[in-house]
Design a protein that fits this description.
The complex is a heterodimer of chains A (256) and B (242). Chain A has 256 residues and is mostly helical. Chain A contains ten helices and no strands. Chain A has one domain (2-157, 213-252). The radius of gyration of chain A is 20 Å and the shape is globular. Helix content of chain B is 65%, strand content 0%. In chain B, helix 10 runs antiparallel to helix 11 (198-210) and helix 11 (198-210) runs antiparallel to helix 12. Classes of the chains: A mainly alpha (256), B mainly alpha (242). The A-B interface holds A 42, 93, 95, 175-176, 178-180, 182-183, 185, 204-206, 209, 234-235, 238-239, 241-242, 244-246, 248-249, 252-255 and B 3-9, 11-13, 15-17, 19-20, 23-24, 26-28, 30-32, 36-37, 39, 52, 77, 79-82.
Chain lengths: 256, 242
């Protein structure tokens, strides 16, 4: 059982290596490192701080974009090539296929986070860079699991990418949305405001608040606490488990 | 017969269903146990340079100015917290307003914010900072920005009780804003009158009527009556001019 999952994960990783994903990540890292160096050169004061901040925030977005889109494109291609049909014709439970793909994609996420955080180790304190890298890997884990869920559920690239983008934007702004809905400047007692507040609180129960992950402030101001990173790891584990179960649920119900 | 897109839920293995239910319940319980986010007031940061903002906005300075204006306007009402204007760092606010105007010189919004919002705080130094900003901006484009300085003159006269400052603003409007309507250009006369400078006010008003600058018959009638009243007042209290 474990062997089948491992083989699928290994081939997923191999596919990423052979489709120039490492080159793409390296190019993004270089471009953002160069952009941050440009900022450092034109900054009058706090030049290293600005360079670190620009690189960290830009690389976080780039990593999410690359990892999320790669998962969508890879699985969509398997759907379209009918390679999945052949795979499922073998003596392979569907859950194992999902676990194998997820395992491979999560390994890719860890490698992307590693590549993204290496330049940061030169700019910021090593501990802060390590915390930032671990947090990015955890964030990418959720994005990857959600991307897999989207593409399995919708089968088409466009709706899956749109939902993934909406999810990420919502997760990044969720805390601000909760604060604004809980303390409106006027008319807090109005029914519509109450409904909006309840909706925001309801969404917060099922969507992680990404503003707590991979904060630029960790590398330019105060490092995070390790207990905080542990909390993020727990949340990530739980959310990835939930998304995996949801993906399996949809995948078992699919007809091929 | 067309095959159904989806199979029934019974096709999903029970461990998968169990994992889904347990993970969902744990997720909801975990999030419900997290403390609610609390609002924290953040200090207004210094604005980026106009050149940097041009780059960041892909050379769309007007759009950048509009976004900055909305950001600044919303700053006193950060998510979950409301900051009184008097708690804002007014020198920073002036820097922001300057930056916005340098990106979009035709914008009136920053001047409205300065003269009608930020100048309303009951702190004299902050009011003066805003009036000074409005005055500086007026000198750059008198015909486009005279109305904000006219409001500034009123604030100086009635809120700050600084008639000299109000008179300086009113005189600048009369001197530089050639397209301003007569009421704005005549403000200095009434401020002078309020200051007891009846002779100066009379000369200015008489000059205004003599040059034919005022053409509206009702306005001419009103100003003529006003001129007569001033002359009478001047005769009855010659000590008032000092």
């Amino acid at each position: 059982m474990t062997r089948q999952i491992t083989i699928i994960a290994r081939y997923t990783l191999l596919e990423a290596m052979r489709t120039r994903l490492p080159e793409l990540v390296a190019a993004a890292t270089l471009v953002l490192a160069a952009a941050s160096f440009f900022v450092q050169q034109i900054a009058i004061t706090e030049s290293t701080r600005m360079q670190t901040g620009i690189y960290a925030s830009g690389m976080r977005l780039a990593s999410v974009f690359i990892a999320g889109l790669y998962v969508l494109a890879s699985v969509a291609r398997e759907f379209n090539d009918k390679g999945l049909d052949v795979t499922l014709a073998l003596d392979l439970p569907r859950a194992h296929y999902i676990l194998g793909k997820l395992g491979g994609f999560l390994a890719i996420g860890v490698l992307v986070a590693l590549a993204a955080s290496l330049p940061l180790a030169l700019l910021a304190a090593p501990e802060a860079a390590l915390q930032w890298g671990i947090s990015l890997a955890l964030e990418l884990g959720i994005v990857i699991a959600f991307a897999l869920f989207c593409i399995v559920t919708f089968s088409q690239l466009m709706p899956a990418a749109s939902v993934l983008l909406a999810f990420y934007l919502l997760a990044r702004t969720l805390t601000a949305i909760r604060l604004m809905s809980a303390h409106p400047p006027a008319g807090a007692d109005v029914l519509s405001h109450q409904a909006i507040r309840m909706l925001a609180e309801g969404i917060a129960l099922v969507v992680p608040a990404f503003d707590g992950w991979t904060q630029t402030a960790w590398v330019v101001q105060t490092p995070a606490t390790w207990s905080g990173i542990g909390g993020l790891a727990g949340q990530t584990l739980l959310y990835v488990a939930l998304l995996t179960a949801a993906t399996m649920f949809d995948f078992y119900r699919k007809n091929f | 017969m067309k095959r159904s897109e989806e199979r029934s839920v019974s096709q999903v293995p029970r461990p998968v269903l169990g994992l889904l239910v347990i993970a969902f319940c744990l997720q909801v319980a975990w999030q419900a146990l997290q403390p609610k986010p609390s609002a924290r007031a953040e200090a207004l940061p210094a604005p980026a340079t106009p050149a940097m903002l041009r780059v960041l906005s892909l050379n769309e300075p007007v759009a950048a100015a509009q976004l900055l204006t909305l950001y600044l306007q919303a700053f006193d009402n950060q998510p979950g917290i409301s900051i009184p204007f008097r708690d804002l760092d007014y020198r920073r606010v002036v820097n922001w307003l300057d930056t916005i105007l340098s990106l979009d010189a035709a914008a009136q919004y920053p001047l409205l914010m300065a003269s009608h919002l930020y100048a309303q705080v009951p702190v004299e130094t902050k009011q003066r900072l805003m009036l000074d900003f409005v005055h500086r901006s007026f000198l750059e484009d008198p015909d486009g920005r005279w109305r904000w300085l006219a409001h500034g003159a009123i604030v100086a006269k009635h809120r700050l009780n600084d008639r000299a400052l109000a008179l300086r603003y009113a005189e600048d409007i009369a001197r530089f804003a050639h397209t301003a309507p007569n009421w704005a250009r005549q403000m200095r006369i009434f401020i002078l009158e309020d200051m007891g400078e009846l002779e100066s006010a009379t000369i200015l008003l008489g000059g205004l009527l003599a040059t034919g600058e005022v053409t509206d018959p009702n306005e001419i009638h009103f100003l003529t009556r006003r001129l007569e009243q001033m002359k009478n007042a001047e005769k009855s209290s010659p000590m008032s001019k000092n």
